[in-house]
Amino acid sequence: MKSIKLLLVLLLAVMTVIAAPRAQEDEEHAVWMKTIQATTGSLRKNIEGKASDDISKDAAKVEEAFKKCEEFWTKRKTEDAIKWSQQAQASAKEIADAAKGGDMEKASTNLRSLMGNCAACHSAHRERLPGGGYKIK
């Protein structure tokens, strides 16, 4: 009986050690998602206001967040999410380039492309919680 209890305690300890880093990664991912959400809202307003410098700053921030997302999904070997993260990075770079060139229509088109990648990934990998909020599927 003691050996079974010891085995259960050891198993629980191992599971806790294994699960802790993944939980922290999930929390970090949630922070990036909130950053992306807020920054894409800012991007939309800055594109409408033709604020090139602010668009470039926002686009760089979004691109960096999606680089982190790509690393997150690469660790999990989730090919579709890796692809969407890469495409979102490319869209963010295109937004910045378009803004530098004064082409707000192109910036707006690339923002829609970026948001499409967000929607695709959320649909595939995000689950709404009963009490509100979301978790990764």
Q: Which oligomeric form is depicted?
A: single chain
Distance between the termini: 37 Å
Determine the structural class based on helices, strands and strand pairing: mainly alpha
| Beta-strand segment tally | 2
Strand content: under 5%
Protein architecture, described:
A hairpin with a 5-residue loop joins strand 1 and strand 2. It is elongated and about 75 Å long. It has 137 residues and is mainly α. It is built from 4 helices and 2 strands. A two-stranded antiparallel ribbon has the order 1-2. The longest helix is centred in the N-terminal third of the chain and has 47 residues, at 2-48. The mean pLDDT is 89.
Q: Keywords, please?
A:
137 residues; mainly alpha; two-stranded antiparallel ribbon; 4 helices; 2 strands
